[in-house]
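Case 256 in the screening queue. Each case pairs one protein sequence with one candidate compound; here the compound is zinc ion. For every case the pipeline is the same: read the inputs, emit a complex structure as tokens, and attach any notable structural observations.

Predict complex for case 256.
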Amino acid sequence: MAGLPHVKPLARLGVYLTDFLFPPRCAGCARAGSVFCDRCAQAVLPISGPICAHCGRPQPRDVGICFACQSGGREVFHLVRPATLYTHPLRSAIHGLKYAGQPELAELLARYLVAVAQQPLWQDVLPRIDWMLPVPLHPQRLAERGYNQSGLLAASAAKRLGLAYTDSLLLRSRQTRSQVGLSASERQQNVADAFVAGAGVADKCVLLVDDVLTTGATLTACAQALRLAGAVAVYGLVLSTPAPTTDGVLGDAPPS
Ligand SMILES: [Zn+2]
Ligand SMILES: [Zn+2]
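Case 256 output:
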């Protein structure tokens, strides 16, 4: 037992040695030193210019409410805001978080969600939020990845915003194929009825968190499940969204 006090410094030495021999590399530029360097963090683009007043997605010109929101789904959401544009180096960081087994990126990336939630628009909303929760992964995907990237983002942001976090009140009840390459209506069909919410959301205001917003089909399907289970209001915060295109082509957001 006398040797135990020495275990901790030894373990710490192990971490130092590992960092020395295999320094963390930036997910944006591959420079050694940190998982997302300051230079890449400063290159992350916030949403600017005209946006849809409802879903917050950037628009080529001032439209008020975007075409997608006018076409439906708007009634299930009170408000959605993406935080950043889905461009390099953030795109690489999200890729690292989702596919390269780098959950430590979530803590750094959650800062962009927090920054949006601290804007004046949300001042009256945040005190009403009962639960902050992520778009869920199917249990099989969760087992493969080991974590839900949106859950890590939401948990980190919730902690910093002083909100309650849960990942047990909204579940993905069936596997869906990747949304990549699907049209807006195909995306809607693909995720329809894929989610089920627990009775714990009845009469509650919830804030949904996702990593990337393209058509909003996934968020809308989640919101529908939450409203069906009795949630009185559903809001959305999303880490990133592709820049607007003039030809109406959907961004190339990665699969969940
Ligand atoms: Zn970098
Ligand atoms: Zn919109």
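Case 256 observations:
- The first strand starts at residue 79 and ends at 85.
- The chain has one domain: 41-241.
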